Amino acid sequence: MNPKGGTEILKEQLLAQLPEESIDGINLIGSICNPALVKEDKINVLWQHLSYDQPNVQYMRDRKFVDSIDYFIYVSHWQYNKFREVYKIPEYKSFVIKNATHAFEPVKKEPLIITSDKIKLLYTSTPWRGLAVLIKAIEILNKTRNDFEVDIYSSTKIYGSAFEESEKDRFDALFNKCKNTPNVNYHGYTFNGEIRKAVEKAHIYTYPSIFEETSCLAVIEAMSAGCHVVTTNYGALPETCGEFATMIEFDSSGQNLIERYAETLNSVIDNYRDNLYKDDLEMQIKYYNKNYSWETRIQEWKNFLNYVRTEKTR
């Protein structure tokens, strides 16, 4: 199985919507900083999705490699500024073009029957980005309430069969805990099309992130689909979520984070049942389906590629 995480999905969607002639002569490199990927006869554009501290970006310390790249694209202002601070990147050839998703059809969540319906929670990220925190927070909630269920789509399989095999022992215990925790439905890996259906049905997107996201496509999809997001203020998440999400302060103490997240999620479930997010969610859906749609973003890419060509002919 070929890996197909957010980076691969985004590149596939971008190339599907660009006219072929717009990328003629362009070598679009996806995130990995490696001199072997540079093509001397093309305009080299490095579309960077990774965080500044990841192993696959360490060639950014090599000025020869940096000089061989004509343009750098970053997916958030937070990420751009981190690379600027850590690697002293050449600002004149650095641009921010945010991520995007296909717009959702007009979203209408089924109204809750307060006395019987369960609030639908959802987690769709990789296991090391906050799943252990979520499961422990759910265990706390299970002691006092039974009016919710959380669907978990999380697996190492998303990065390919070889990665899944190498990481199997590391996460098996966590996945088994998901399967055996009350009010949790563990689904493992599925395709992005199924994830999009899941976010349309969910009410609250539960993501206690312990990973410095550079953007977070999963959150963008959830917000576009009308989920209220409960997450941490770590990495670029405040930029991605704006004022729409419920955020808690990141805490490197795992137990503090678990307890704070459980307490916050408990309040959010109550607020959702009381219909307190209705107006905000209506604004959120319109905002993300406009500002994070491919219809909007593809024009930014076309403008950038036109600029690249203009500069080349000067």
Residue-averaged pLDDT? 92
**What gross morphology would you assign?**
globular
Total domains, how many? 2
Widest sheet, order of strands: 7-6-5-8-9-10
In total, the number of strands is 10
**CATH top-level class of the largest domain:** Alpha Beta
Please provide a brief summary of the model:
With 314 residues, this protein is α/β, with parallel strands linked by helices. The chain has helices at 6-17, 63-68, 77-87, 131-142, 161-180, 192-201, 217-224, 237-241, 254-273, 278-291, 294-313, and strands at 26-30, 43-48, 71-74, 94-96, 119-123, 148-152, 184-186, 204-207, 228-232, 246-248. Helix content is 44%, strand content 14%.
Your description of this structure?
This protein has 314 residues and is α/β, with parallel strands linked by helices. The chain has two domains: 116 residues, Rossmann fold; 173 residues, Rossmann fold (3-Layer(aba) Sandwich), CATH 3.40.50.2000. The protein has eleven helices and ten strands. Strand 5, helix 4 and strand 6 form a beta-alpha-beta unit. The termini are far apart.
